[in-house]
# Entry
Amino acid sequence: MPKIKFCTIPVANQDRALKFYTDCLGCECLTDQPFGNGTRWIEVGWKNRETTFVLFTPPGMESQIGGFAMASISTENIDHTYKEWAAKGVEFVEPPKKQPWGTQAIFKDSEGNTFVMTQD
# Structure
């Protein structure tokens, strides 16, 4: 059965993004290797999750940095994750809020990319 292996997150500064995703969001660095032209292929993810993030901006796609991420993050306990990440300095645009479809929060990463977080 097919599955999504990774989502690419456009970043302006790979070192800053790697620090944010590992230190603030609790991801593990799975791959960090040269990818040409002074860039690196950096793949991060959480334990026991199949889909990972690649912190990389393809040439010509720099305008995508700081936009609305085309990926949503889900967690088992949104209130707990919100408090944990906010304490680590994650900027939340919107705290957890009940919606007709469930509870969601909206946050930004170190590069200004905006994500929706929902509860499983």
Summary: The CA atoms of residues 66 and 112 lie 4 Å apart.
